[in-house]
Specification:
heterodimer; A: 82 residues; alpha+beta; 4-stranded mixed β-sheet; 2 helices; 29% helix; globular; B: 367 residues; alpha/beta; Rossmann fold; 2 domains; 6-stranded antiparallel β-sheet; 5-stranded parallel β-sheet; UPF0033 domain-containing protein (chain A); TusA-like_sf (chain A); TusA-like (chain A)
Chain lengths: 82, 367
């Protein structure tokens, strides 16, 4: 069965906005959901995986070409929202 | 075992919890570490104001691409093994920038109001978490403030103002300067040992560096000129120019992002040109072409320019085109052709003689 992949488009947004939007989107998703984030800020390649590691989400794949960075992650356990 | 590595004992066996303001700099990193050494569970919060200086702003420009592209707050959180909540306060923050009760610093930096606002946001988060999670909520707030370190916000007399006006009161602990300040709730209650807090003061960074060594923190960010664009004179000048030209003090997020990028030239009160300086900026400004009229050279390689405002005549448009041509590869040519594109997508071409340096007075350069 093909997994349902949620999409988030944060192209042309500078960090930390892609991270904030990823964080907000992840907060809406259930544990185990898969999210694919498309960015143009190359810094996202460091920051979104770092944010995932800190908060217990799993990075499934990162892809980068000349213009875009795509990060696919699986949502981990929900944390107490501050 | 060293003194610093001995966690404080909690006879009631409740692990106390703190929210720390994490900027990504050394001071907040040390403040968190000092709490962890005393057995406190710490979670970080980092506020996005829109004016934050991040490595990523450098990432737009190719020449800066070997600079750090990481978000320092995230990096610090990972190093210290704490969770980090990044909160977008850019909308609410406008009031801090536009109407600072305690005024500005050397530029348009409302540092004292900013700190009060951020500690207040953390206090609201703390109160909400206590309401929702009770014992699993948070007990106090930690910042990396040091008495006497910053001329506007971190002075002995401003410390109590921040505590009281933010509403945090004695739930606000500054571990690096605590012994220079009145006792706070976490100290009084014995959640943390005041004797194992610090008495740093002034602008000398050596005590922090020594403490970093003691904690085994070998790598940390050393931002030059702070972490906020508003402390930067050139940036503040651009923001003041924007308000002057609009006859009102207001801004949107796109405005303040665009002030970070390109060469800003204002040939008239009613329009300003934002001209990319290289390929990375070109790409960044490209994303705004659906919002702004844009100019780009077609007969030779050259920059992309956005027009913030309007042209009142064809003359003005041609003058703007000549300025843009001046920054293209065709600057020495007799004629350069540019495409002028409206936000709606309607485009036409104009041919101009590139402006000579003395045809772009210094006073038109903003910043």
């Amino acid at each position: 069965m093909t997994e349902n992949v949620h999409e988030l488009d944060v192209r042309r947004q500078l960090c930390p906005i892609p991270v904030i939007k990823t964080q907000n989107k992840v907060n809406e998703l259930a544990q185990g959901a898969v999210l694919r984030v498309t960015c143009t800020d190359p810094g996202a390649l460091n920051d979104i995986p770092a944010w995932c590691r800190i908060n217990g989400h799993e990075v499934l794949e990162t892809e980068q070409d000349d213009r875009e960075v795509v990060i696919t992650l699986r949502v981990g356990e929900p944390s107490v929202a501050l | 075992m060293s003194e610093a590595a001995t966690p404080i004992s909690h006879p009631e066996s409740i692990q106390r919890r703190a929210i720390a303001l994490v900027s990504g700099g050394l001071d907040s990193m040390l403040a968190v570490k000092a709490m962890q050494e005393q057995g406190i569970h710490v979670e970080g919060v980092n506020f996005f104001t829109g004016f934050c200086v991040e490595g990523h702003t450098h990432a737009i420009r190719k020449k800066d691409q070997d600079k750090n592209k990481r978000n320092n707050a995230l990096w610090v959180a990972e190093k210290l093994g704490i969770k980090l909540h990044i909160v977008d306060i850019s909308e609410e923050y406008k009031d801090v920038v536009l109407n600072p009760k305690h005024g500005y610093g050397a530029n348009l930096n409302p540092c004292l109001d900013c700190k009060i606002f951020m500690v207040n946001q953390a206090t609201l988060m703390l109160n909400k978490a206590r309401e929702l999670a009770g014992e699993k909520g948070f007990d106090f707030i930690v910042t990396g403030e040091v008495v006497g370190q910053r001329p506007k916000s971190q002075r002995k007399e401003t410390m109590p103002i921040i505590s009281s006006e933010s509403g945090a009161d004695d739930r606000l602990l500054r571990p690096l300067s605590a012994r220079n300040l009145p006792e706070t709730l976490p100290e009084r209650e014995g959640w943390v040992d005041r004797e194992r807090l610090y008495d740093f003061s002034g602008r000398n960074r050596k005590p922090q560096m020594a403490l970093a060594r003691k904690f085994g923190l070998e790598e940390y960010a050393q931002p030059a000129g702070g972490c906020c664009f508003l402390t930067d004179e050139s940036y503040s000048n651009k923001l003041a120019d924007l308000w002057r030209a609009r006859n009102e003090r207001r801004y949107e997020l796109d405005d303040i992002m665009l002030l970070k990028v390109g060469r800003h030239i204002r040939p008239a009160e009613h329009h300003k040109l934002i001209i990319s300086r290289e390929e990375g900026e070109n790409r960044f400004l490209e994303g705004y072409r659906y919002q702004f009229t844009s100019l780009t050279t077609v007969s030779c390689p050259g920059p992309l320019a956005l027009v913030d405002g309007t042209f009142e005549s064809d003359e003005e448009l041609r003058r703007a085109a000549a300025i843009v041509a001046r920054y293209s590869k065709g600057r020495a040519d007799d004629e350069v052709v540019l495409e002028v594109k409206e936000p709606g997508g309607v485009a036409r071409e104009v041919a101009v003689r590139p402006a000579l340096p003395d045809e772009i007075p210094l006073s038109w350069h903003v910043g």
